[in-house]
Design goal:
Elements: H1 2-24, H2 32-61, H3 67-75, H4 78-81, H5 91-113, H6 115-136, H7 147-150, H8 153-170, H9 177-193, H10 206-225, H11 232-267, H12 277-303, H13 308-314
Length: about 325
Amino acid sequence: MGRVGVYGVSIFYILSGLTLYYVYHSKMIPSKVDVLEFLKKRAFRIFPLLWLAIISSILISGKWPGFLNLLLNLSGIFGFVKWDGYLTTGAWSIGNELVFYIFFIIFIFCIKKSTALFISLSIVVFLVYVFFAFNLLSPQILLIKQWRDYVNPLNQVFLFLGGVLIGYIFHKKNINRYVVFLILLVGVFIFIFYPSQKYAISIVTGWPRLVFTISCFMICFSFYKMDIKPPSFINNPLMFLGEISYSLYLLHPIVYDLVGMILAYLSKNSLKFPTFFQVIISFILSLVVSYFSYNYYEKYFMKLVKPKNEILRIT
């Protein structure tokens, strides 16, 4: 589960790069109009919920973060200049993602203008990734003490690029379903059974960093090229979780804290709850809150920048 906690975000980065390539590779030149349209859509998708999560976290904590810190977080600039200065749990990855959008424009430009330039840039990004894994981050020091270096977007952008590369290389290629399934099994096997030390830092440094990265690429690639549609009782819940995933990611820590505060208050009045009760209630409420957030809050802002035909598809 510790590996899932660490590399779940990595898989999110890979899927983000892959999805953006899938959507934009054929319709983005990129021209000035393309870039502005892309950034506008991304802003309307990311910021409304991020603002909600930031303000909620501040209200729950009761601590004023300072005007500059608040401005950096609300504007998203923290991802570029103070990536460890996020004000709500998990927002460091959203700050990274905002940086990746700028990289994505550069990647698409290189793909469209010069394959050699794109390959060269990909090699540079990979070498930076290796530098962090083998030099900048030390396996002898706890991850929490190296958190600023770990969440540096330059340490994560290769994962996003990996998703772009999967789309770039395999977009029009048909792969035998049995080969795809085998790659998935091998990727999952590596992820589960590759030996590592006790602490989280051991899986994000050195060779384990590269091994786990490859396993994540294999897993994402497999689901991308898998042409098997699961039955509706599996497919529909997965689609539901996919739609609310952004809300679920940012809001579940807030829901957890609120439930904890309520249970702590009730406990003072002689009502005792088992320790796992907070987790169960938070899990259920997070799904409910995320559903309403996506359908009645996030969709509203998404529609503001969608053409009519896309709005019909969303609704």
